[in-house]
Structure formats: C-alpha cells, structure tokens
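Standup notes, protein team

Yesterday: finished cleaning the Micromonospora zamorensis set.
Today: Protein meaA structure.
Blockers: none.

Input for Protein meaA:
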Amino acid sequence: MDETAFPGRLPERDRPWVMRTYAGHSSATASNALFRRNLAKGQTGLSVAFDLPTQTGYDPDHELASGEVGRVGVPVAHLGDMRALFDGIPLADTNTSMTINAPAMWLLALYGTVATEQGAELARCSGTTQNDIIKEYLSRGTYIFPPAASLRLTADVVAYTLREMPRWNPVNICSYHLQEAGATPVQEVGFALATAVAVLDAVRDSGQVPAERMGDVVQRISFFVNAGVRFVEEIAKMRAFGVLWDEITRDRYGVTEARQRRFRYGVQVNSLGLTEAQPENNIQRIVLEMLGVTMSRDARARAVQLPAWNEALGLPRPWDQQWSLRMQQVLAYESDLLEYPDIFAGSHVMTALVNEIVTGARVELDKVLELGGVVAAVETGYLKSALVGSLAERRRRMESGADVVVGVNRYTETESSPLTAAGAEAVEQVDPAVEAAATEGVRRWRADRDTAAVDAALARLRADAATTTNLMPATLECVRAGVTTGEWSGALRQVFGEYRAPTGLAGATGSGGDPGLAAVRERVAATARELGSGRLRLLVGKPGLDGHSNGAEQIAVRARDAGFEVVYQGIRLTAGQIVAAAVEEDVDLVGLSVLSGSHLAAVPAVLDGLRAAGRADLPVVVGGIIPAGDADTLRAAGVARVFTPKDFALTGIIDDLVTVIRRANDLP
C-alpha cells in the first residue's frame, strides 16, 4: 500500500465496482424475471440468494423444509431449476455471485452444466461461489458436514476451477457474518484470515495443485466483508486486511508476484445493523456503510451489494432493491470519488488506526494457529465463544446507551412513516403456494428420470467420497443424471456424517453492570420458590432451517445470568424434537427464535405438538422478524408473547419471560 501517492487527479476515472443486489425468492422462474429487471436497470452483476433448504442440502418435500421453501431465496433442487433460473441470461457474459456454502460444489456443477448447455466456454465464465464453510459453524448455521470433510469439498472446488474455470472465484472468505455474530474489527480480520489459511493449506496439502501454481490459487481467493456504520474504522479495517493478506501469501505460500497477492473483496453492508424502528434511518446507514468500502482507492471493494431500507421488516420488493442500486450509481457516476488516487495516503490518523488493527489481528490469528488452526478452533468452541462474548458486550453497550442507535435507544420520538403506512404491503410477500408447487415439481422431476443412471451416479459419488478423489467429476455425473440437491447431500451425509457445532454459550456472560438485572434475578428466584422448583427452566428452540442464532444465544446468555437454567440444543430442529426436549426437560417456558420468515408454519407446529403431548399449559414465546399482522395471528394461536428487533433490551425481555411464567401458573 503506497502511503505517499501524489494527491492529484487520476489521468482517467477509476472503473466502478461491480454493482449487485442480493436477490432471489419464490421460484426459479420468478427469480429469473427479477434478475432480468435488475440487469435492465443497470446492475452489472448477479448475486443469487438461495433458500434455506437448498443451502442446507434438502429437497422441498423434506420435513425440515416445511415453511422455508422460496422464503429467503430461490429453491434449486435439480438441473431443471437451474436452467429456469438463468433462462435467457448469457452466463458467459454475466458475473454471477452465488451465496452457497456447504453444497457449493453441487451448485457450481449445476451452474457450469447450464452454461455449457448455453454454448458458453467454462473458461470464460466469471463469478464467485461463497463456499466459506467455517463461518457457517460460527454464524449462519447452514453447514451440513463436519469441518474437515467440508474443507475437503472446498479444496476440490478450488482445484477444479483452477483447471476448468480460471476466471471463477471458487471461495469467498467471509468476514461479513463474523461481524454480525459479534466480531470486533480485530477479530473479524484475524478470524477471517485464519479461515483463508485453512483453505489454502487444504489446497496445498491435497496434492492437487503444484507448488508453483499456488500464486494462481491465491489470486482467485476473494473475500466477502461487512461494512458497519463506523465507516472510518471500516476503511482502516479494509486497509489492514490488505496489509496482512499481502504478508501471509508472500511469507506462508511463497507468492512472489504482487499482483497475485492483491486483497480482492466484495461487500454487503451491514444488514443486521438496520432497524425496525424508524426504518427510514436505514437509508443514511446504508450510504455511510457504502462509503466505508469505496472511499479508499487502495482498499476499494471490487463488488458491492447493498441491502434495502426495509430488510429489518421483511423481504424487500423490487422497488426497494432499485433504490439501493441507485445509491451505488449516484456515488459511482455523479460524484467525483473515482477521479482521485487514494485520499487517505499519508494520513497519520488512518495509518495509526490501520497499524492498531493489524497488530491486534496478528495476535488473534496466531492464537488460532496455536490451537491447531481454524478447524480445531471451531471444534473446541473457542471461536464461537469469543464471538458470543463480543456480541454480548456489544449488546450491553447498546442497552446502556453507551452506543447510540438513533430511533432505538435515543431519539425515539417519531412521526408515522409514509414508507411503512402500507403495512404488510411495504415488503415482498411470498405466496404460500410456492412450497406446494416446488414439492410437486421435485416429485415430477424424480418420476421422469432414468432411475438406473441416478443410482449409478450416487454410487460413484459415495465411492469417491470414501477416497481422496476429487469429487467434482462424480458431482457433474450426478447433475447430468438428474440427481436432486437432497440426494447429492444425502449421499455425502452417509459418508461424512452430519455435524452439530458448539453453541458458544459456555462461560459467556453479557449482563455487565446492568442495574436492572438484580431485580429480575430476584423475581426468577422467587418464582422458582413459589413453584416449588429449584430453578426456572427455559428451553430456547430454533425450529426449521433458520441458522441465524445470534439473538437466541444472547437471550440464552442473559436468561442464564438472571438465574434461569437454560436448555439450548442449537439450530435446525424439527417441531417434534423441540416438543420432546420441552417435555423431557420439564421446562417452564419455551422460547422460539425464527428469523427466516417461516414463523407461521414453524410456531403452530410446535404448539400442536405440545397439545398432542399433553402440555398445552406450557407457555410459548416467539422472537424474530415478525410483521404486526403475523404477530396477531401467533397470539391468537396461543403464543404468550411476540418479540421483534425493536425489543432490544434483553433484561427487560427476561423480566417479561418471568411474567409469562407467573401468569401461566396463576401466580400474582
């Protein structure tokens, strides 16, 4: 990074970054229409959102997929869906990013097959498979297999693309989700680079890539980062990333060409920092966050996708996505940002802040490597515990008012917003018929294919998985035979097994000096005495495939601090499993967390299960991104309380939980 660059104008404007919106919902056909509209509006790349069943390797007719099909992304169950998704979109000329991780190999095989059918040369195709499985164990929760097997799949994809798709980014190391899970800038840089080291080590040690080609591997590794509203700090963070990436790739992997060591990243600005309260404030948040990754030319993002103002309320509409695209276009084409070299070169403030983050991130990286690498740090729970602890501290600062969130913990007086006056019409609505159509569609697909070819392809996949053979050829055979997403994942589950990541709750505390906690702790103890039990017991449940567990974990930590005994088994549970745990553990309250929008399917299933088990008396509360109308529906169905992101004071929530228990047991 040249900190002495001449501060005059560039001889010609710098080229803009790739502009995307993260999009996809309902069905492949509906998403294709959305993609076409977005490209016509000037979007220069696609960013595909897949639904949770696709991300976790289930077909639409699987029990766990109930209520989740097409809700947070597009369902892709087989080659026919991928054909429909990109119908009429020339893949050879379109830079495509796919947010897919555990089944990244499968989706890339589907994508490449469709591109070939279009007549495209794979060597010309450009884009990215996210394919960072480590952060799934720490934040998003869409993992399938154990860490070592998952890294093997990533290494196989890297080796395959190096040979067949040299313009493709086979992995997108994600610090984005680490920040959402609580990471400080230092942790975000250190932990993300530890993941990158694990991926590069896995590729190097697989024997599939000659040592002299590691530079070619490094130059196709990209990063996906978060940009929060503290945009000066975010600029420094990105510059620190560049310094350390250059150092690691030079010293650890012997990459001598500076061009190959360049830190390449795309960004989605902080969606979880958007607020349900006064959502119009999200516009200025998004703009400031965009500046954090575009102002510094030497650390400028190569691709940017912005959330919409209403993502804290539900699924954005096409108009909302257009607004976010226009923000990027105004900055890139109307402002003079791209006319200058790096405007922070030589800044004493920026240099000091960069050095501070670099120093701290080195410490974090070294700590992970001393533990045996990022896989060991996942399996021991170290990384998850560190993030849960950091997020608890962040929440404590917001609750105390030390960190101001306008409209939430300060300046809460407000006029009614014309943006939300339409109620449920202010967000995209997913037709419940989508799931039935997808279920029928995948069953028709299975019925119309050559069963013998499917069986042979899956047998080859299982056999190759039991060896060290690259799994991409067997996966491509599965694609051509008509195998489904669930069948591909199921075959590998048989060989690799499934995995449940550590929850990170052990040892975490988040109460800080909260003056209200002592009174709540006394209410918890008094209620337990009146009920004749040793301690109140709370079951925190994550039904369905929603893996965003940060909120559930923070509730669990604060409830434990208040004196509850907390039962938390992690993510991805069926209604039956939650009911069984509630009965077996004899809990006093069930708290369900659903952020995927599937609450109207997932919550009634738990309520019905409790009634069938003879525990209709057991109170149930729900938290998540839940529109007001849906909250009324849930309360009418028997839910005692509904909490949404505007309910940010955790101690107050725990106090409400005690009240729910007392009322359910006829205590004053």
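Follow-up from PR in the comments: The CA atoms of residues 129 and 393 lie 33 Å apart.
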